[in-house]
């Protein structure tokens, strides 16, 4: 296992500790919010670091193509769900934000499965819109954990870029599937 994959694995393994700190959070245990924030920031930084290390050292691997996005999805989906479910936080994410974030990720995962079944391989390459979406999702989570009054600005931006990136990923999936159909029809 290369160093980039170890960093991605660290991010995945940090998720249960992040979830636990939010599940046990209550105003009288405010320190847990800051523990969750610290874990989240470390995990978010690990996302940037593992990508940089993999590109710089040319350590691209099949495991990394799965571990990196899996770590992102687990971290962000658990953050959005926990920060919606914990009623001790204000502001907290509204349900519609959670539905947008999770729906996009479920659609992307199902689309990747369909492409893999049809094509028998998959090359997961994040788009610029996907990276911007991830950035604003992370900023939204951090702002809610910090209980910033302007958190709604970040979750609106996260929602907008999540929808835009989702549309681009769906379009890319159709292009890949239609390219397969047209190449089969030409033979």
Describe this structure in words.
The chain has 187 residues and is mainly α. It has a single domain, classed as Four Helix Bundle (Hemerythrin (Met), subunit A), CATH 1.20.120.1760. Helices cover 80% and strands 0% of the residues. Helix 1 (3-23) packs antiparallel against helix 2 (31-56) and helix 2 runs antiparallel to helix 3. The longest helix is centred in the C-terminal third of the chain and has 35 residues, at 151-185. It is globular, with a radius of gyration of 18 Å. The N and C termini lie far apart (41 Å).
Q: Helicity level, as a percent range?
A: over 70%
Supply the number of helical segments: 6
- Which range does the strand content fall in? under 5%
In the predicted model, the low-confidence regions spanning at least 5 consecutive residues are none
Largest sheet: none
Count of domains: 1
- The number of distinct β-strands equals 0
Rg for CA atoms = 18 Å
Shape: globular
Q: What do the pLDDT scores average to?
A: 89
The assigned CATH architecture is Up-down Bundle
**What structural category characterises the helix and strand content?**
mainly alpha
Superfamily (CATH H level) name: CDP-alcohol phosphotransferase transmembrane (TM) domain
CATH topology, anyone?
A: Four Helix Bundle (Hemerythrin (Met), subunit A)
Q: Order of helices and strands, N to C?
A: HHHHHH
Distance between the termini: 41 Å
């Amino acid at each position: 296992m290369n160093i980039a994959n170890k960093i991605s694995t660290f991010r995945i393994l940090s998720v249960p500790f992040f979830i636990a700190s939010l599940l046990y959070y209550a105003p009288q245990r405010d320190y847990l919010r800051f523990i969750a924030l610290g874990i989240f920031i470390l995990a978010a930084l690990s996302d940037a670091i593992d990508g940089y290390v993999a590109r710089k050292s040319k350590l691209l691997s099949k495991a990394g193509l799965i571990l990196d996005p899996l770590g992102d999805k687990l971290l962000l989906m658990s953050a959005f769900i926990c920060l919606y479910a914990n009623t001790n936080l204000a502001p907290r994410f509204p349900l519609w934000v959670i539905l947008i974030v999770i729906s996009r990720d479920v659609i992307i995962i199902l689309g990747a499965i369909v492409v893999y079944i049809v094509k028998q391989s998959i090359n997961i390459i994040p788009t610029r819109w996907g990276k911007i979406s991830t950035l604003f999702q992370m900023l939204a989570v951090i702002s809610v954990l910090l209980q910033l009054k302007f958190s709604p600005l970040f979750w609106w931006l996260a929602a907008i870029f999540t929808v835009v990136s989702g549309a681009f990923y769906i379009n890319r999936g159709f292009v890949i599937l239609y390219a397969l159909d047209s190449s089969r029809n030409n033979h």
